[in-house]
Structures are given as C-alpha cells and as structure tokens.
Here is the input.
Amino acid sequence: MSDSRYSFTEAPDRVYDRLIARATRDELTGCLVAGHSASKQTGYSVIGWSENGQNHTELGHRVVWMHAHGPMAEGMTVDHRQGYCPRNCVEVTHLRELPLLENSRRNKGSDWPLGQLCSRNHGPEHQVLVDRQTRTGAHRQSPRCSECMKIAAREYKAANRADVNRRNREYRARKKSGLVPSGRG
Ligand SMILES: [Zn+2]
Ligand SMILES: [Zn+2]
Here is the structure.
C-alpha cells in the first residue's frame, strides 16, 4: 500500500502512550493489537493528534517503530515481519524497516529474497516506475523491473507466434482435406 497520505512524523510520547495503553496483547502470537480505529481500507491502525495547531495522522505501527528507532529514512517503510500479524499489530519486535520498493512488490503477492528487487535479481538500475490503473480506476505509480518486463514481452511474443503458426498449420490441414472451400469461386 502507499503510505504517502500519512505524515512520516514522529509522534509525541503522549500519543505513543495512548496507543499502547489501548492495545491488547494476544497471548498466543505475542501480537500487540491496537485498540484504535483501524483504516477500513487497509486494516492498519491509525492514530491522530494535533500539535502547534497542526493535525497529524500516522499509522499505529509506524508510531511504535519511530518511537523505538527514530525517524524513518527516506524511501523506507515499516511492515510486519510476521505473516500471522494482523495489520493493526503494534508489537515493535514484529516490525521491520525495509525499502518501499520491496514492500510494494511483496503486497503484489510475489516474493523473492530480501535485498533482491525482482525474481531474476536484476540490479536497481533496471527499476522503473510504471503507471498502473487500480481497480477503482485511480492511477498509481508502481515499481517494476524493466529487464523483467522486456523478458515478459519477448515470452508473450514467442507464445503468440507459436499460437499463430499452429492456427495457420491447422487451417492449411483443413484446407487440404477439403473442409475449407478454397477461393470464393
Ligand atoms: Zn504481531
Ligand atoms: Zn528483473
């Protein structure tokens, strides 16, 4: 998911305290489940506060991460390292920081080792942002590997060519056996 509408602001301690005070521990998994409203769209917990007349909104797990580790570096995001975590888990040991590029492709359902940007291990110089239309019709920029896209295009062409050749062969065979009238007469 895109975190861009959130503020990347370190929350004041009182906000962290409020978040933790209302969270409950899942004894089975060790998850600390936020009691605050979770985003209906994403399931992440969201907490808001105002400071110096400005309103802030931040994701609960990021408030917890930044409380422990300080502000997040640019291009980084925080996600749950444990597959069983609900998205509103704010247990700091269940979180990790990783590059936004890696996180967005994880959410696409594909996976490959950490540190690799695509399944074929092409370098970061091949990463491009591709405009993509979401189900709601909105446009979003997604990171893709340009080398992998080239390979996919070649494979598609080859498959398509094989398909066309096969259909041509079938057509010629039908014609030979008289199933297809030759010419219009
Ligand atoms: Zn958890
Ligand atoms: Zn690639």
In short: The CA atoms of residues 131 and 137 lie 12 Å apart. Strands lie at 24-25, 32-33, 46-51, 54-59, 76-80, 95-99, 127-133, 139-145. Residues 146-176 form the longest helix (31 residues).
